[in-house]
Design goal:
The chain is an alpha+beta fold. It has two domains: about 100 residues, Arc Repressor Mutant, subunit A (Orthogonal Bundle), CATH 1.10.10; about 110 residues, Beta-Lactamase, CATH 3.30.450. The protein is built from nine helices and eight strands. The strands form two sheets. It has a five-stranded antiparallel β-sheet with strand order 5-4-8-7-6, sandwiched between helices. The chain has a three-stranded mixed β-sheet with strand order 1-3-2, with helices on one face. It starts with 7 loop residues before the first helix and ends with a helix.
Length: about 220
């Protein structure tokens, strides 16, 4: 196996290539059929059993799509020699549903406007937020009820000496508060964008910033302490 395939991005490319690189929104049921797998309804967690992928039809449509793609992620990991763990399968699933090259083009076209892209790929905001720092140089943060639930800086600029705090800086808190309280779906501030995401039971905000802008603002906040 070509060493270039032995990573998550390569696994997703391998799988999509094997399915003739369909255009988004990707239909994981059709991809499964190309690999001679039948997708059937069954209660409980999704699973691959023999020639079948089972998934729960009572989950939201985007959740069902991801559940099926997750099972395909296990399959792709196995074929390229990656450990077929659930975290790896989930990452491959995101890269299958949000193909890298198309995502790069759409990010350029929309100036990183995730609100336009959720519908294109028919995935959750979480999937897009996780795909973003793997595709462009940015910091993506998911804040639930005012606390950081997820934060990642693009891996190729990680550990370069810049800050990577696990807390929300004052400038971030201001944006999160304004976005969460806004009737508009998105609140933008220069090179940083905060999206208010509908989430039953809690306030969720997705915060996206270019690495340089995020570091500059964070350094200023740290110096002011």
């Amino acid at each position: 196996m070509d060493d270039r395939l032995l990573d998550v991005a390569g696994a997703a490319r391998f799988f999509l290539d094997s399915c003739h690189n369909p255009d988004p929104p990707i239909d994981p049921v059709e991809l499964a059929a190309m690999w001679d797998l039948e997708v059937v309804h069954a209660p409980g967690p999704a699973a691959t059993i023999g020639g079948f992928i089972t998934h729960d039809p009572d989950r939201e449509p985007w959740q069902q799509r991801f559940d099926i793609a997750h099972e395909l992620g296990h399959l792709a990991a196995h074929h390229v020699g990656l450990p077929s763990t659930c975290p790896t399968a989930s990452e491959i699933a995101g890269a299958i549903l949000v193909p890298e090259q198309d995502f790069k083009r759409q990010l350029s076209r929309t100036a990183w406007d995730l609100a336009q892209l959720v519908g294109r790929y028919e995935v959750s905001w979480e999937v897009l937020a996780r795909r973003l720092p793997r595709t462009v140089a940015c910091v993506a943060t998911i804040i639930d009820n005012g606390d950081i639930w997820y934060r990642e800086r693009s891996r190729w600029v990680t550990n370069q000496g810049g800050p990577h705090p696990k807390r929300l800086e004052p400038w971030e808190k201001e944006l999160v508060t304004e976005a969460a309280g806004s009737e508009r779906h998105v609140y933008a501030d220069n090179l940083v964008t905060a999206y208010s995401v509908p989430s039953p039971g809690y306030d969720r905000v997705v915060l996206v910033a270019g690495v340089e802008e995020w570091e500059a603002r964070t350094y200023r906040a740290m110096a002011a302490e």
